[in-house]
Write a structure and sequence with these properties.
This protein has a 9-stranded mixed beta sheet with strand order 5-4-3-6-7-8-9-15-16, covered by helices on one side. It has a 5-stranded parallel beta sheet with strand order 12-11-10-13-14. The protein is built from 31 helices and 16 strands. With about 725 residues, it is an alpha/beta fold.
């Protein structure tokens, strides 16, 4: 028995030795496969590399427990290959396998976090970042990713904590300084925001992101200095950075930022097109229609999403006697937002005519506000798509078989350009959101009017111009039914203003005395040159004051400092607070003259001021953003306060402040025009907008793709196109 046991033991030892030798050989062969795979991938031979990595995995499957780390590394490589080939979903699957096998594989974890974030799955991204930071020694890069995920979820406290930890690990981390500054900015903590942006600029002065950020924060707080981003010159940093490498990637300067600072419609067209094409490239990669260029780590500059959706259902639903045009509205602004203020009521008008079937695709927050509830009730079909990935949003739009998709965001915050790039509807148009074009071939028409976009300005826009009648303007001005404004509210405006005056001027927040010039736009719209013109007016009109809105704690101090530089007593600058709508609107009645900003003028605020009977002095330029007030004044037939030069702006501002009779005549004419004009008649506007939509759809059905301009006179029963 002992001999038998001895023989068995010896035999087991021999087999074990042979097995261990086989495993060692397998490890060696697998390692060779892995090395060959890496080399092939570096040479761009991606399919061959994939075979090598798969062969390595097959060999390592024999001893799973001992090969976890190696298999994790190979799954990470395979994930990279899928991504380079444009298959992001499978790439993410492989990276998740890698992280499961080896939770400490940092590169794979970072790829997982980035991929989830790109898909809008920020909660999952945050979970992975927090797990990585809990398991490993602190790394600035991973802490920044945790902060980014927190910020995307609007948890700024969590974001600031993560970025601060990153700076403790690496005080010179550009990303940590930059993103911490962004978090401070989003919380309107402008002083620390500016400090961290400036430190980021010191670390990397060539960063276009820092140029963007400094322009934003200095604009929001009116802390002007060098460089002055609003001076039109070849050395302007925004202009220089705007066109940098745009053949290969999207412009690094945001179109909205450019519109705020420069009256340059030609440059803006270039930038919006670059941004739109960049978004389309990213969308193509996300849906697996494009690969990442291994050399540049970016998609091919020509990459676009391929055709994904059929329009057969939409086309079949527009036949027969009872056909209705199915119109979808795409926006994130169905909450307490200026856009909601303008559009509430129009969808009810659509329903009443029975000509338009309304589909609202709302992917923004539900704040439970009255505006949200009103619009939701007005829409025949309301889809709450908050948090949905862009592919799902596009799919829902296509499933609803809308004929025309009206995008109401374009290049503004929380845009849906990635949805537009998938072309879920047969005809896509832009209206109301961004004051300019869209670019990238994402929409066919830009809805506007003959003043904001004169026919001879079509070269500034890639899209065909679909023009509403002059008397209506492109901007719907539906204030009579606004729950906070209403016809009755303004009919008793003087009495209400008087009552508020008796309660105390702080209620209305308008300085005492006369005249009171005001500019209740967002302070980022005020630029040094226009502020200088306003101060010239104050200097010439004794006792006058200037009321300007402030949204940041340091804005008032900065503006008063600028006024003093221009020889104006800082006490004559009244810093208006952000008030609830009731008091905000009442202070228009207590003001004398609204001084418009330039180059980005008042839009919704102008509508409110004119409806309240407050004259507006404006000077339009060539850009869309500078011409909205001119359009509103033309709609009212009151263009006498629309001037051509800055010198005329100052001169007329002085006249209306010094000459009470001239001012009274101007105001009386404005109030009279408001009552007789169709500008504030929502039913009239909706009727013409519906007719325009029908014209565009008829052209689409007829296959007319190259009609440049559509224009319809409000008194005409027919339309003309050219």
């Amino acid at each position: 028995l002992l001999l038998l046991l001895l023989l068995l033991s010896l035999n087991h030892h021999v087999l074990t030795q042979e097995s261990e030798d086989d495993i060692a050989d397998s490890f060696q062969v697998a390692h060779e496969f892995e090395i060959r795979g890496v080399n092939m991938a570096n040479e761009g031979r991606l399919k061959e590399a994939m075979k090598e990595f798969r062969s390595a995995l097959k060999l390592l499957e024999k001893r799973k427990a001992e090969t976890k780390v190696t298999r994790a590394r190979i799954h990470h490589f395979i994930g990279n290959l899928y991504t380079l080939q444009g298959d992001l979903p499978r790439g993410l699957q492989e990276w998740l396998k890698a992280v499961k096998l080896d939770p400490n594989l940092t590169d794979a974890r970072m790829n997982v976090i980035k991929s989830l974030s790109d898909q809008g799955r920020h909660g999952e991204a945050l979970k992975h970042a927090q797990e990585a930071n809990a398991r490993q020694a602190p790394r600035a890069e991973m802490l920044v990713m945790e902060g980014d995920a927190c910020k995307a979820l609007r948890n700024f406290t969590c974001a600031k904590l993560a970025y601060s930890k990153a700076l403790r690990v690496n005080p010179n981390s550009f990303s940590a300084h930059f993103q911490l500054a962004v978090a401070h900015r989003d919380l309107m903590e402008d002083v620390p925001a500016l400090r961290h942006f400036e430190r980021a600029a010191e670390i990397d002065p060539s960063s276009s992101a820092v140029v963007n950020a400094l322009a934003v924060v200095r604009g929001d707080t009116c802390k002007w200095g060098e460089p002055d981003f609003s001076v039109p010159s070849p050395s302007n940093l925004l202009s220089l950075f705007a066109t940098r490498d745009i053949d290969e990637k999207a412009s690094p300067i945001h179109p909205l930022l450019l519109a705020y600072h420069l009256d340059n419609a030609t440059l803006l067209r270039i930038v919006v097109d670059s941004q739109a094409r960049g978004t389309a490239r990213e969308a193509a990669v996300s849906v697996g229609h494009a690969a990442i260029d291994q050399r540049t780590n970016r998609p091919d500059p020509r990459a676009r999403p391929r055709k994904m959706f059929s329009y057969k259902k939409a086309m079949s639903l527009f036949r027969g006697e009872n056909k209705r045009l199915r119109v979808g509205y795409l926006t994130a602004d169905i909450h307490d937002h200026p856009t909601a203020l303008l559009v509430q009521g129009m969808f009810r008008q659509h329903q009443q005519t029975k000509e338009i079937e309304v589909f609202m695709f709302s992917y923004g927050p539900n704040d439970g506000s009255l505006y949200r509830r009103m619009i939701q009730d007005e829409c025949e079909h309301f889809h709450d798509l908050e948090g949905e990935p862009f592919l799902q949003i596009a799919t829902r739009i296509n499933q609803e078989a809308v004929h025309i998709l009206v995008d109401m965001k374009q290049h503004t915050e929380s845009h849906a350009l990635n949805v537009l790039s998938l072309h879920p509807a047969p005809l896509q148009i832009a209206w109301l959101g961004f004051p300019g074009g869209v670019g990238g071939g994402l929409v066919r028409y830009l809805v506007s009017d003959p003043i904001v976009t004169p026919p001879d300005s079509s070269s500034f826009y890639q899209e065909h111009l679909a023009l509403l009648p002059l008397q209506l303007t492109y901007q719907i001005n539906n204030l009579k039914r606004d729950p906070f404004i209403g016809e009755e509210e303004y009919a008793e405006g003087k009495r209400k203003a008087k009552e508020e005056e008796e309660e105390g001027e702080e209620q209305v927040d308008v300085p005492s005395g006369w005249p009171v010039y005001t500019s209740l736009n967002h302070p980022r719209k005020m630029k040094p040159a226009r502020f200088s013109s306003c101060m010239e007016i104050l200097k010439a009109v004794e006792g006058s004051k200037f009321s300007i809105l402030s949204r940041h704690s340091s804005t008032g101090e900065n503006l008063r400092r600028e006024a003093k530089k221009r020889g104006i007593d800082p006490s004559r600058i009244h810093i208006a607070k952000v008030l609830n709508k009731k008091y905000h609107l009442l202070r228009f009645k207590a003001s004398t003259l609204f001084l418009d900003t330039f180059p980005y003028g008042a839009h919704t605020t102008a509508t409110e001021a004119l409806y309240a009977g407050l004259p507006i002095l404006t000077r339009p330029g060539e850009s869309f953003a500078s011409r909205v007030v001119a359009s509103l004044l033309a709609g009212l037939g009151r263009e006498e306060t629309c001037v051509r030069t800055e010198e005329e702006f100052v001169k007329l501002g002085i006249i209306l402040g010094k000459n009470g009779r001239s001012w009274n005549t101007t105001k009386t004419r404005l109030v009279s025009s408001k009552r007789s004009s169709v500008l504030f008649r929502e039913g009239e506007w909706v009727r013409h907008f519906q007719r325009l939509l029908k014209i565009l759809w008829e052209l689409e059905e007829a296959g007319e793709k190259h009609v440049k301009i559509h224009y319809e006179e409000p008194s005409s029963s027919s339309s003309s196109s050219s």
